[in-house]
Amino acid sequence: MLAEKGKAKVAIEIQWSNQSDEETLRRQNRYAEAGVRGLWLLRRRRFPIIRDLPTPRLDGNMRDGFDVELDTITSKQRLPVTDFLVAAFARRLYFGIPYGIDARVSIHAGTMECWRDRYREKTRVVTRINADFGANSCRFLLSDLDDFPGITKAVLTHMPQGIGIGTIRPRHSRTQQRTYLSNGCRACGALLGAFHLHEALHDEKMIAAFPQRLTGLWHEAVTVRFTLEGAPMAWGVYDG
Ligand SMILES: [Zn+2]
Questions:
Q1: How much distance in Å is there from the Cα of 188 to the middle of ligand 1?
Q2: Is the pLDDT of residue 141 over 80?
Q3: Are the C-beta atoms of residues 26 and 70 closer than 8 Å to each other?
């Protein structure tokens, strides 16, 4: 199927049989030489995810209709074939981390006891900060924000007051022999280290959320985070 919109030519190939990866790539290159973008819908389950070739899986049957399934960076996306094609033609199908996309940042916290206080003061600590966009979720610990002061500022601006969170600031850890952005006891200010955050997971909940466009430092931070985690870049459908 060959579709044209303005100067853009897109070939949509629905591949029912098990075409070899080499053959698919060879045909994709031939399209590229002819100035055509190839979009493959593959019945088979696996294909290496690469920038040159969007290859969502096709799932379904004639009676129930067909869905498209994509492995995104951190999750999966499933949508009807028509919605997928509309998104592709509206340039809402992206590879990697789309620059300028709308994300939702959420702050999560739980409670833990201070190791230093005789009375085991309970403090609420930030367990993670999530930047969600499309079907992807990028997770930061406070210490991951050290290299991004602009982001730290945005997060601290949205931190709710009066719910028992200790002062968040850089503290030195003797066990880790480094200084990092950390939670602290609200009574004595002692470092409540990243290593013990699991103690706060039992009552973890979201305490704040705000919209954030992935530009500049935010885009860079998400890129760095995914790179350090070894998260594979992938195709995804996004709003707007
Ligand atoms: Zn304390």
A1: 4
A2: yes
A3: no
